[in-house]
């Protein structure tokens, strides 16, 4: 892949954030808190408007957002939305801009985006993140990055702002996405394990809190178990990571597993649970709403 080289000297890059949903808005706030110039765009402008009060420039179109930016950060839902937004942004792009692509889009889509970036002269960094709403807002995400090492100086202020840790996976774009799919396998299976334990406790006539108290402080306890259980038992399903997004990621993991000759029984079962919960109307809620897939109708 041949691309123009970004400026190697570190500085204060102007960042265009395309997509201001749960993750994009949180990352934009972290950038603004660290006084980086930020331009934002979202398909529904009203979701981007609150960032103006914190100093962001809100634009009407993706090409307006990326025009003059040093780093373009995409924080969108899926491969289709990323591809469509790139097309819309193209008139404002210039060779040498660094594209920090944080959406989880899978292996095939990543290869396509790398190809499109090369055609536009962009420096593509595959940069999915590990973390949800609160870490995005606090700037404590873990960012997996792969791509040309020459771009590191340009994006370092961005990465230090949005994350507490950057894992440089390698030079090959796509390597970071592969690591993200493995990490998401852990999360997806864990959230469904939490949901099933709560389902079984209730089915057996137990107060689920007895299970949580029994685990508390022991070697099998985790903040994730306690936090997700508390959320669903209290009925607070405000999404930090939406169930429909977890279903999308499950399917990407299964596609990658099939292509690599690996069988993932637990992820397949998790995807079925997510699909049932989504069909029952829980897609926009937090992914612990998979709990409802195990309850009698």
What does this structure look like?
This protein has helices at 22-33, 45-48, 62-66, 79-89, 107-120, 133-138, 152-162, 175-203, 208-215, 223-234, 243-260, 265-282; strands at residues 15-18, 38-41, 57-58, 71-74, 98-101, 123-126, 129-130, 141-146, 163-170. It has 297 residues and is α/β, with parallel strands linked by helices. The protein has a 6-stranded parallel beta sheet with strand order 3-2-1-4-5-6, sandwiched between helices. Helix 8 (175-203) crosses helix 11 (243-260) and helix 8 (175-203) packs across helix 12 (265-282).
In a few lines, what is going on in this structure?
By secondary structure, the protein is an alpha/beta fold. The protein has helices at 22-33, 45-48, 62-66, 79-89, 107-120, 133-138, 152-162, 175-203, 208-215, 223-234, 243-260, 265-282, and strands at residues 15-18, 38-41, 57-58, 71-74, 98-101, 123-126, 129-130, 141-146, 163-170. The chain has a 6-stranded parallel sheet with strand order 3-2-1-4-5-6, sandwiched between helices.
Global morphology? globular
Helix content: 40-55%
Number of strands: 9
Overall average pLDDT: 95
Largest sheet properties: 6 strands, parallel
Low-confidence stretches: 1-9
Strand order in the sheet with the most strands: 3-2-1-4-5-6
C-alpha termini separation: 53 Å
Strand content: 5-15%
What is the alpha-carbon Rg in Å? 20 Å
| SSE run | EHEHEHEHEHEEHEHEHHHHH
Query: In terms of structural class, how would the helical and strand content be classed?
Result: alpha/beta
How many helices does DSSP assign?
A: 12
